[in-house]
């Protein structure tokens, strides 16, 4: 039980990679926090995890709203008395080529994927610094390392997340807080599963392994970075992409 007694907060954990993360953390003994934007989605997942986790707690908050993010972190701290792990997973896409992208498309993605990470990271960091321990894991993307056609907004956020990760690692290390990022490749989430077969085959063809990743592959990376097995790892970007960028 690598996370026994730990309190793990995962934003965007009502589905996809985030839900896989709380599942994996619960299996390793963590007390988990389900964080989503809609109360009904949060409570549905909380009910699902009753009896499957040491303890489960839910918060509904928009990560892009600093007041909501801070209030959610305060609720978690008040309930558990601490926060050991934060996975900044919540994110959205709104794809368009540069010449066709609207201001709303750009602003909305920046608000959730970049400012949201900042809001939650800042709030959790204050708590972790006070307790002199903690782990922050930010979710970037291979797009945040190499860019991608039609994703000016998304790529900008995922590049930015890497910059924040390295900066926070330098600032928070002496306060006992480790900060790392994970950069997933093509992952077979519910959304991706709905894509046409020819698109899925194209995505598989980009990987030397000829595979798409599963959400559990990313959850396992989170688990490693959150655990004491990674106690000497900070400021790094762990690519989990099947070699797609080689």
TrEMBL record:
Coiled-coil ranges per UniProt: none
Enzyme Commission identifier(s): 1.1.1.100
Molecular-function GO terms, alphabetical: 3-oxoacyl-[acyl-carrier-protein] reductase (NADPH) activity; NAD binding
Span of the signal peptide: none
Gene3D superfamilies according to UniProt: NAD(P)-binding Rossmann-like Domain (3.40.50.720)
Pathway field: Lipid metabolism; fatty acid biosynthesis
Domain of life from the UniProt record: Bacteria
Residues at the catalytic site: 154 (proton acceptor)
Catalytic activity: a (3R)-hydroxyacyl-[ACP] + NADP(+) = a 3-oxoacyl-[ACP] + NADPH + H(+)
Domain Ketoreductase, chain residue ranges per copy: 6-190
Binding residues annotated for NADP(+), in chain numbering: 62-63, 89, 154-158, 187
One Gene Ontology biological process: fatty acid biosynthetic process
Keyword NADP recorded: yes
InterPro entries: 3oxo_ACP_reduc, KR_dom, NAD(P)-bd_dom_sf, Sc_DH/Rdtase_CS, SDR, SDR_fam
Keywords: Fatty acid biosynthesis, Fatty acid metabolism, Lipid biosynthesis, Lipid metabolism, NADP, Oxidoreductase, Steroid metabolism
PROSITE patterns in the record: ADH_SHORT (PS00061)
Protein purpose: Catalyzes the NADPH-dependent reduction of beta-ketoacyl-ACP substrates to beta-hydroxyacyl-ACP products, the first reductive step in the elongation cycle of fatty acid biosynthesis.
Subunit structure comment from the entry: Homotetramer.
NCBIfam families, per the entry: 3oxo_ACP_reduc (TIGR01830), PRK05653.1-3 (NF004198), PRK07231.1 (NF005559), PRK12826.1-2 (NF009466)
Protein name listed in UniProt: 3-oxoacyl-[acyl-carrier-protein] reductase
């Amino acid at each position: 039980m690598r996370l026994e007694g730990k309190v793990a907060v995962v934003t965007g954990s009502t589905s996809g990679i985030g839900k896989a993360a709380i599942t994996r953390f619960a299996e390793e003994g963590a007390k988990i926090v389900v964080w989503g934007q809609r109360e009904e989605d949060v409570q549905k997942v909380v009910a699902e995890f009753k009896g499957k986790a040491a303890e489960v707690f839910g918060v509904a908050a928009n990560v892009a709203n600093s007041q909501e993010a801070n209030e959610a972190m305060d609720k978690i701290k008040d309930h558990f008395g601490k926060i050991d792990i934060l996975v900044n997973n919540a994110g959205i896409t709104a794809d368009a080529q540069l010449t066709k992208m609207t201001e709303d498309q750009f602003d909305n993605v920046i608000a959730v994927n970049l400012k949201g990470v900042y809001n939650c990271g800042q709030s959790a960091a204050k708590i972790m610094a006070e307790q002199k321990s903690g782990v922050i894991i930010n979710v970037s993307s291979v797009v945040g390392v190499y860019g991608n056609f039609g994703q000016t907004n998304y790529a900008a956020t995922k590049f930015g997340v890497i910059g924040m990760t390295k900066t926070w690692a330098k600032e928070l290390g002496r306060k006992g807080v480790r900060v790392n990022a994970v950069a997933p490749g093509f992952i077979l989430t519910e959304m991706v599963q709905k894509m046409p077969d020819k698109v899925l085959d194209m995505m598989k063809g980009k990987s030397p392994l000829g595979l798409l990743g599963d959400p559990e592959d990313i959850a396992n990376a989170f688990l490693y970075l959150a655990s004491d097995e990674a106690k000497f790892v900070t400021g790094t970007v762990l690519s989990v992409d099947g070699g797609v960028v080689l």
